[in-house]
Write a structure and sequence with these properties.
The protein is mainly beta. Among the domains are: about 120 residues, Jelly Rolls, CATH 2.60.120.290; about 160 residues, Jelly Rolls (Sandwich), CATH 2.60.120.290. It contains 5 helices and 26 strands. The strands form 4 sheets. Strands 16, 17, 18, 19, 20, 21, 22, 23, 24, 25 and 26 form an 11-stranded mixed beta sheet that branches. A hairpin with a 5-residue loop joins strand 4 and strand 5. It is globular and about 65 Å long. The chain starts with a helix and ends with a strand.
């Protein structure tokens, strides 16, 4: 009797819908069931100011007036955070899509086919765990103030970075990539620092960073000298014979040394798979506390941030300041063997540009424009190719006339005052150019004190610029 009753109970349990519905069904079944019972639903969240992709936190300085529309799209079927930018400014390489076919169109409302998602564990809780584990590589600002990239903590460690604060919205850690001597940069926005940074380095050596392209469509490197203090060039001809910084593997760039904190440099790489670039610091000579921290940013071809070809320095904005390497009013010396172009982007509705020597609060006689001459024997403003034969700056058709076209203009300027008229008493004046694009070509030879007449303690130049509106 007891055996008969037990058989009856087990038969009834086996026939209940709950028992039959849970048997032999996996994650694919539940995904199919959700797809059949629910039309595609998307929840759109408007992130806060800190959650959106702010170009100020991007890997390179943003052009003035540049805005980015950002949003986070949460799909109910697979809760994956997907950043969408209207202008596609994020230059980091995208993670591959779940289908393994590259990045997908996140604006599409097409319903996902559950057959592409194979999950062999709990169908509900695992999907939500996937969302917290997968963090997209968007730009962020670390607690240290450095630029970083949002990754999960495990991915950050796997890629060789260091977490520095949390990304907003629970999106993982702000991962900062920092390398020193012998490092190989494979991530965008990598910081190259001296040994034992932030402690200064006082020793002899050669410190190199190899930079590999993250994608074949990378055309330039931008090097931001967050900190760059090397020993000064030798006193006679201002050549970098002791400490020096060089770049190989791209277009030729001049060797620099001295104080360059706050300055920057662009290196043209060309499209396609090219040889790696190598950044090298050589330190030698007298005892000196050297320190450097260089932010290395990779820039895609034909982007909003791409500098014109052959522009070693590139500035954006209606107003700004351009200065030569090792410009410092206290101890900086004009570097020899310099030959490069500075470019300023022409902003919309502006047709001209004004230059003025920066204010000198250190020296009794201003030295913010001192290219040729001597502090012992000032030469004033010198103009023209016939008189500026050793060191000079070229500004196309520059004049003191604020109207275009100018009645007369010069192209080559030198001396120790900024002026378009040769004068020993005229001092620094405002000068104007209406030739586009706005460029300055800077040239120095290999001699200073050994030249005839001798040139002593020239600083190079620092110029404030203001673009002039079209009229």
């Amino acid at each position: 009797m007891y055996l008969t009753a037990w058989l009856v109970v087990m038969t009834l349990v086996a026939l209940t819908p709950a028992a039959t519905e849970g048997r032999g069904r996996d994650a694919q079944y539940y995904l199919s069931r959700w797809s059949s019972k629910n039309s595609p639903k998307h929840k759109v969240f408007t992130p806060s100011a800190t959650e959106s992709l702010d170009v100020n936190n991007a890997q390179i300085p943003a052009p003035p007036g540049y805005t980015t529309a950002s949003r986070l799209l949460l799909t109910e079927a697979v809760t994956e955070l997907v950043p969408i930018t209207a202008d596609n400014t994020q230059i980091l390489p995208p993670l591959s899509s779940p289908r393994g076919t590259g990045s997908r169109n996140t604006n599409s409302t097409e319903e996902r086919d559950s057959r592409f998602f194979k999950i062999s564990v709990s169908p509900v809780f695992s999907l939500f765990n996937m969302a917290s584990a997968r963090v997209r590589n968007v730009a962020c600002t670390a607690s240290s103030g450095d630029n970083g990239t949002c990754y999960s903590t495990s991915d950050c460690a796997r890629l060789g970075g260091a977490p520095s604060g949390a990304c907003t919205g629970g999106g993982g850690s702000c991962c900062v990539f920092q390398l020193s001597c012998g490092g190989v940069a494979t991530q965008n926005c990598t910081y190259f620092v001296n040994s034992n940074y932030p402690t200064a380095f006082d020793g002899v050596g050669s410190c190199q960073l190899t930079v590999n392209k993250i994608r074949n469509d990378i055309c330039q490197l931008r090097l931001d000298f967050d900190t760059l203090t090397l020993s000064q060039p030798e006193n006679n001809d201002h050549q970098c014979v002791n400490d020096r910084f060089t770049v190989s593997g791209g277009t030729p760039v001049p060797t620099i040394c001295g104080t360059n904190t706050g300055n920057h440099m662009y290196v043209d790489l060309g499209p396609g798979a090219t040889t790696p670039s190598v950044l090298t610091f050589v330190t030698m000579g007298p005892s000196f506390e050297r320190k450097w921290k260089v932010k290395v940013t990779q820039i895609p071809c034909n982007s909003d941030f791409t500098a014109p070809t052959n522009c070693l320095q590139y500035y954006q904005g209606v107003t700004g300041q351009v200065k030569t390497y090792n410009y410092d009013l206290t101890s900086g010396l004009q570097l020899s063997n310099q030959d490069y172009t500075m470019c300023i982007r022409t902003e919309k509705n502006f047709c001209g540009i004004q230059y003025m020597a920066c204010t000198d609060t250190v020296n009794a006689e201003p030295q913010s424009f001192s290219i040729t001459g001597s502090t012992a024997q000032p030469v004033g403003s010198v103009v023209g190719a016939a008189d500026c034969t050793r060191d000079w700056v070229t500004i196309p058709c520059v004049s003191v006339d604020s109207r275009s076209p100018a009645t007369s203009c010069q192209d080559r300027l030198c001396g120790d005052n900024l002026n378009t008229i040769a004068s020993t008493t005229g001092g620094n004046v405002r000068v104007f150019s209406f030739v586009k694009p706005f460029i300055l070509v800077y040239h120095t030879d290999s001699q200073e004190a050994s030249s005839s007449p001798a040139e002593v303690e020239n600083r190079g130049f620092c110029l404030d610029y203001v673009q002039q509106p079209c009229v």
